[in-house]
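Dear H.,

Thanks for agreeing to be a second pair of eyes. The structure we're designing against is below in token form, covering all 241 positions.
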């Protein structure tokens, strides 16, 4: 059942395009080969990236769905596309950190690569023009970006996703350093985990070598970007070639 009628494009983001389908409550998400970093200032196209992120994200979503996480993801259609419930996205990015790196080190001057005593959750306001500034829960409540109940559900799901992803990746020799989630609400009012979970939105370090297997290879010009994404897919799909 891979023949999904693609209708109008309703949104084009940095890494994905969204199309309407015959069902007004369902959208088709198409993954692009584009890389962007530093709020869109650094860009590149890499062939095969959209496919790998679609495969990785779909595999992770299937695993999370099987473990009771409420998701917008419905199913993978083909190499580049997924079907998902149409949601209106909360204008909030939720970051969970197990190990310090990236913006928290720059912002707070804390030691790089330190394991935190417990997972740290941060909120950012989704606004490209402002460079997605960090916010507190009170900002979200006062400016009406999310309600108190929403935030507590969002935090609970984020912690659950962290435990489940650690359970998935640890035996695969992969350390889950940090990740970003987005949430939305469907037409029935259900709060769902949305967007994608991939090496674009997570940091993965190889457990034995500490090698970066994620978008930091692109951000920091480390080379071997697509090889790292391919390696994550290999580990997740159990391929040994
Ligand atoms: N992240 C993301 N989208 C963003 C910002 C961050 O997916 O717009 C992810 C990033 O890949 C990492 C985590 O969130 O896994 C924490 O990122 P950080 O705040 O350290 O930001 P960065 O160093 O990327 O600026």
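And this is the sequence the design step returned. I haven't edited it by hand at all.
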């Amino acid at each position: 059942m891979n023949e999904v009628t693609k209708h109008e494009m309703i949104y084009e983001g940095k890494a994905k395009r969204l199309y309407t389908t015959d069902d007004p409550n369902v959208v088709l998400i198409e993954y692009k080969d584009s890389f962007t970093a530093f709020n869109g200032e650094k860009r590149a196209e890499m062939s095969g990236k959209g496919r790998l992120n679609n495969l990785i994200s779909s595999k992770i979503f299937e695993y999370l769905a099987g473990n009771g996480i409420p998701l917008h993801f419905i199913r993978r259609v083909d190499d580049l596309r997924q079907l998902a419930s149409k949601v209106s996205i909360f204008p909030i990015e939720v970051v969970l950190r197990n190990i310090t790196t990236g913006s928290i080190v720059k912002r707070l001057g804390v030691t790089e690569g330190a394991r935190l005593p417990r997972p740290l959750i941060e909120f950012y306001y989704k606004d490209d023009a402002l460079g997605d500034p960090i916010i507190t829960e009170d900002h979200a409540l006062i400016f009406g970006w999310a309600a108190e109940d929403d935030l507590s559900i969002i935090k609970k799901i984020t912690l659950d996703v962290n435990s489940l992803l650690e359970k998935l990746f640890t035996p695969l020799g992969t350390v889950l350093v940090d990740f970003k989630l987005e949430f939305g609400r469907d037409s029935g009012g259900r709060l769902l985990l949305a967007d994608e979970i991939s090496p674009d939105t997570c940091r993965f370090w190889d457990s034995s070598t500490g090698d970066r297997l994620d978008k930091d290879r692109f951000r920091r010009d480390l080379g071997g970007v697509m090889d790292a994404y391919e390696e994550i897919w290999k580990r997740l799909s159990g391929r040994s070639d």
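Two observations from my side: The mean pLDDT is 96. Residues 93, 95, 102-104, 132, 178-180, 201-203, 215 surround uridine-5'-diphosphate (CB under 6 Å).

Warmly,
E.
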